[in-house]
Amino acid sequence: MSEVKFVDFVAKKNDLQDQAKPLQVVNGKGEIVNQEVFDKYSDEDLVKFMKLMVWERTLHQRSNALTRQGRLGFYAPTEGQEASEMGSQLAFKPSDFMLPAYRDIPQLIQHGLPIWKAFLWSRGHVLGNDYTDENVQALSPQIIIGAQYIETAGVALGIKKNKTEDTVAFTYTGDGGTSQGDFYEGINFAGAFQVPAVFFIQNNGYAISVPRRVQTAAVTLAQKGMAAGIPYVQVDGMDFLAVYETAKAAREYAAAGNGPVLIETLTFRFGPHTNAGDDPKRYRTPEEEQPWFDNDPLIRYRKLLTDKGLWSEDIENAYVDEVKEEIKDAVKKADEAPKQKISEFLENVFEVPTPEIAEQIKAFKAKEAK
């Protein structure tokens, strides 16, 4: 008598490998693979999308240089993730609430934060966290890995309880963030209360130096949404149109009261984790990096738009010069911010200072007055 298996776990594990390919509109060769979606956009739209990516690449290059000059503080490079970041952010409205992480400064600026204030945030200046005058619907970038997922669940619950129409909360984390407890708590809470939230996982291959392949046995990071009862999808994060289309659909779904969505974008950070001493050459090989460099989202769309007669080297250079001037003005304004005092640092710790801190404030103010 042959043994009948009540549960075949080998088969179940094999089923996990049967995942659909990431969503895509334009492939790595600059070829259109979804004509129906591509045809929805005008030539003007395509140029706008390209400019957004060039804007972010230029912002990265200038920020990188400013950091090396000692004119910025903390900086997390974004080169390579332009399609993932700009394609997603563009899908949201100014009234939507953004909860960024530290690599999401470009999206935060596009959401309404002036560049000069982003630079002040990098320098650790208190004005970099003051969004009062700009009325930006966002919190300051989160440094704690994954914590923004819990914050997003809470903000989205507030949106739901306040019955705020056509509004969602959205956030980002990296592949490493999905290994954090806050990630699971955030999506589980969001799923349980069916809040209007869109969660992005920017899977750039590494949690600092830890490769994606050893972080989890999950075939995709997107499928982690299944345990929380959240619809999920994986998209080519080097394809602006694919990311934009997916993010738009997710926002529409969440804003309609259907609950949250989890989106994984497959992308790659070309440089270090941050400029604070990380060296990717210590944990990545040239053989691993080159296919991703060849898959640069700017190269992909540059070829596509050039073939259509919409883009050229002259057009790009002229636009880069515009962006550099914008950044130059932002640096000048950031430099004009008042210097911070130790007494002010202490005053910002608590709304009502403790007796000990109150004494320190008094002492430092006396020194600063001399």
Automatic annotation (TrEMBL):
Known cofactor(s): thiamine diphosphate
Superkingdom assignment: Bacteria
Presence of keyword Oxidoreductase: yes
Pfam families: E1_dh (PF00676)
Positions of the Dehydrogenase E1 component domain: 50-342
Protein's UniProt keywords contain Oxidoreductase: yes
EC class name: oxidoreductase
Catalyzed reaction equations: N(6)-[(R)-lipoyl]-L-lysyl-[protein] + pyruvate + H(+) = N(6)-[(R)-S(8)-acetyldihydrolipoyl]-L-lysyl-[protein] + CO2
EC number(s) given by UniProt: 1.2.4.1
Keywords: Oxidoreductase, Pyruvate, Thiamine pyrophosphate
One function term, GO molecular function aspect: pyruvate dehydrogenase (acetyl-transferring) activity
Role description: The pyruvate dehydrogenase complex catalyzes the overall conversion of pyruvate to acetyl-CoA and CO(2). It contains multiple copies of three enzymatic components: pyruvate dehydrogenase (E1), dihydrolipoamide acetyltransferase (E2) and lipoamide dehydrogenase (E3).
Subunit structure: Heterodimer of an alpha and a beta chain.
Name of this chain's protein: Pyruvate dehydrogenase E1 component subunit alpha
Organism: Periweissella ghanensis
Gene designation: pdhA
